[in-house]
């Protein structure tokens, strides 16, 4: 009888542990899908990520700009450029490249010119 009771306790403990793990994973997934980055929906976040990738690719593709020295972040279609430019021309070209990228609403250029 003692062995049966011990076996039952272990079975219940394993089941409770599994349920707790499943509940924790479910909560993490649901909370992650609900809101992302300051009340941004998942779709908006994905759109912004696509814009960021496109701007970075265009900066890397252009010989007049340094994609390594320029950081790009996007929030609600607004592209934020930060980092360093070698000249005022590079800074302006980075703004132009970002502004001409599909779905960009506006550009905030915070690049510092550092020859």
From TrEMBL:
Ranges for domain BON come to 47-115
Stretch forming the signal peptide: none
- By its UniProt entry, which Pfam families does this protein fall under? BON
Q: Which PROSITE patterns does the entry mention?
A: BON (PS50914)
- What InterPro entries would the database entry show? BON_dom, Lipoprotein_DolP, Transpt-assoc_nodulatn_dom_bac
Note the superkingdom of the native organism.
Bacteria
For this entry, the protein name equals BON domain-containing protein
What organism is this sequence from? Lampropedia aestuarii
């Amino acid at each position: 009888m003692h062995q049966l009771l011990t076996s039952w306790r272990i079975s219940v403990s394993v089941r409770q542990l599994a349920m707790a793990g499943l509940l924790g994973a479910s909560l993490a997934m649901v909370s992650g899908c609900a809101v992302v980055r300051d009340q941004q929906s998942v779709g908006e976040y994905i759109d912004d990520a696509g814009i960021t990738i496109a701007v970075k690719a265009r900066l890397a593709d252009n010989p007049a700009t340094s994609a390594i020295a320029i950081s790009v972040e996007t929030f609600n279609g607004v592209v934020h450029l930060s980092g360093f430019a070698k000249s005022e021309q590079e800074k302006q070209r980075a703004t132009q490249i970002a502004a001409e990228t599909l779905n960009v609403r506006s550009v905030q250029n915070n690049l510092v010119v550092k020859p």
